[in-house]
Design a protein that fits this description.
homodimer, 261 residues, 7 helices, 36% strand
């Protein structure tokens, strides 16, 4: 069996497995997604560490700090250095104030905690827009075809952002939160606008919907289901929540008026 | 649309959604999994909060504290009180020592953090056992048929523990970690033995494999894939790691000798 550790920057590794059936066994090659720890520092203060797929790490650094409530709006981040040994150093024009009470979230993701204040607080108005059904079809198809990593490893989630008639950014990660954090990071770094639709392959639990609504994204879509609290937050923020999204059908749990069929 | 908040103890809520297609829209009833915050206290000290599916909360309290490194072996937990307002109070015969450096994990789960020490430390020997293929088939079938909540909501993960020729415990949660934590909690509360096989519907990222191996479970199975670090931890601990597990086939990434075909 392969014993070579993955190279830096590599996203998958090959491994010989043993397929066992009632009638015997055989060897098989499998691809595994690389999961590796990175610590995130803000203005030289260590904020946390997370397991990540090592790509889109600048965006992840910014998005992670947004998810935790340290960074709030685009423009605050000044510089990001990614050290391949496992550190993302973010420099931003913010004061570091520890969130008082945090809730560890149920999500498949790296961020993993939100403050009670964020969960219960009011929302700023979303950045209004609508999306047509042909746009939704193209968006979903493009996200699902953007990378072979999902079908290859069965161990990553994908997330894309659509606006101005095209897929603006797409990221993947071993955690569904991390993939969303990378997209939100791209918004914070001025590489994309929140005035659009986000699509994730992961479930829309509370924390997932919360951070998308906090950054102002009006249309939140998922390949799969929301939870009760994910829906509650969509309703409170006014965001469109579209689940079980397919190129030919979406199941809208809140604010269907932003989808023009 | 339904505006009634879920009742205490309820695990799903019904909601009327709008299915939008290119040719028009129609209403549809959907079931959502209930996601609700619970705080966990150990000996009256607040340790953390997590979003959970509100069932199996005693087990969750014990398993959560194990995942975070506060509780280490069965027998330490003395009493658990679950307050439906959102608090799990665990009393245990342990000193509360804060983990020094924590890594927020990539997993779809509530626990969401592990200490660097746990990730890099040595493992105690696992509780040895083997499993036959007919047992695996029965185990997987029973877990997948144990509850309608998964197919109903598409928003929960299931986890079961098999030993002595039968399914000992089964739990579900909105987080894949939480479902595993509930099973580990059952072991800590003396309701089941670690000397067996665990099966989860969730991916086997590092933290998932780590806590199963730490508690001594020798056979770790998943419906889906492991990550690179999940495999590395299985190899380091010596645990059998069986992925893509189906009633007629499992794909063994480590220690296939515990599976007797």
């Amino acid at each position: 069996m392969s014993k070579i550790p993955p190279k830096s920057g590599q996203l998958t590794m090959s491994y010989t497995t043993t397929v066992v059936t009632p009638s015997g066994s055989r060897f098989q090659e499998e691809n595994l997604a690389i999961e590796t720890p990175y610590s995130i520092a803000l203005n030289d203060e260590n904020i946390g560490s997370s397991m990540v797929l090592p790509i889109g790490l600048e965006e992840f650094g910014a998005g992670f700090l947004f998810g935790q409530g340290y960074i709030k709006i685009p423009g605050e981040v000044k510089e990001i250095y990614v050290c391949p040994e496992g550190r993302i150093a973010v420099y931003a024009d913010v004061d570091i104030i520890e969130p008082k009470e945090v809730i560890i979230t149920s999500g498949c993701g790296g961020t993993g905690k939100i403050s009670k204040e964020m969960l219960e607080g009011a929302f700023d108005p979303l950045q209004e827009c609508t999306i047509t059904f042909p746009e939704i079809s193209t968006f979903i198809r493009q996200v699902l075809q953007a990378s072979p990593l999902g079908p290859d490893t069965h161990c990553v989630h994908g997330c894309g952002l659509w606006n101005d008639g095209r897929l603006q950014v797409f990221f993947e990660d071993v955690g569904r939160h991390n993939a969303v954090d990378k997209v939100l990071g791209a918004i914070l770094l001025g590489k994309a606008s929140a005035r659009g639709a986000i699509y994730t392959t992961g479930r829309l639990t509370s924390d997932m919907v919360l951070k998308c609504a906090r950054i102002g994204i009006p249309i939140i879509m998922s390949r799969t289901a929301p939870s009760s609290l994910g829906l509650a937050i969509a309703r409170r923020s006014g965001a469109t929540l579209a689940a079980y999204a397919r190129p030919d059908k979406v199941n809208v749990f809140n604010a269907p008026e932003r989808i023009i069929s």
